[in-house]
Amino acid sequence: MAGIAVDELHCRRERDPRTGGVDVRDPANRRASGMVDGAIAVSPRTLPVVADSEAPEEWRDPRLQDRPPPVVTVCDLGPISTLAATMIAEMGFADVAHPDGTRAWQETGPPTQPAPDAEQGAPGAPRSAARASASTPPATPRRGARPGTSPAGRG
């Protein structure tokens, strides 16, 4: 896994259009500044699920199931994308990199896209009601909570 300059990312995407971008910033930051053109929005918290080829199919993002294409993770300045890149490299992605961050991307002037309203492909992202209820795991009660009580123990 390597850190790469934004211009190198442009070259990689031109050489291999399958190069995928994964934007691991929080939704507010994505909405405020847009996203790298063609990237998908996934939080670091849900990345291990949506990129896991053994997770239930309805939780996986199909764009993250094919291990051969290169994947580039991005965040504002680089540290969170470095952690995300390490995580997915450990999951079997062979060609993983992270650029200097979306701020560097915007300073060089390449295209951006508006951020989606929800994470794409993440558990809890909008789905049809039937599919969502079938695919959402049951809530786990808080340790020590009695059945039928609120999370604070007051029911």
From TrEMBL:
Task: Indicate, by first and last residue, each region the UniProt record lists as having compositional bias (Low complexity).
Answer: 121-137
Q: Please list the residue ranges that the record marks as compositionally biased, kind Basic and acidic residues.
A: 7-29, 57-66
Q: Where is this region: Disordered?
A: 1-31, 47-71, 98-155
Record domain Rhodanese: where: 22-114
InterPro entries, per this entry?
Rhodanese-like_dom, Rhodanese-like_dom_sf
Q: Where is the signal peptide?
A: none
Pfam families documented for this protein: Rhodanese
Name this polypeptide is given: Rhodanese domain-containing protein
